Amino acid sequence: MLPAVFTRRAAVAINANALRSLSTWSAVPAGPPDPILGVTEAFKADKDPRKINLGVGAYRDDNGKPYVLPSVKKAEEILTVSKPDKEYLPITGLADFNKRAALLAYGAESAPLNEGAVAVTQSISGTGALRIGAAFLARHYPHAKVIYLPVPSWGNHTPIFRDSGFEVRGYRYFDKKTVGLDFEGLKADLRAVPEHSIVLLHACAHNPTGVDPTQAQWAEISDIVKERRLFPFFDMAYQGFASGDTTRDAFAVRHFVSQGHQIALAQSFAKNMGLYGERVGAFSLVTADPAEKARVDSQLKIVIRPMYSNPPIHGALIANTILGDKALYAQWESEVKGMADRIISMREKLYDMLTHHLKTPGEWGHIKSQIGMFSFTGLNPTQTKVLAEKAHVYMTADGRISMAGLNAGNIEYFAESVDAAVKGKL
Ligand code: LMR
Question: Are residues 268 and 410 located together in one domain of the fold?
Answer without folding.
Answer: no
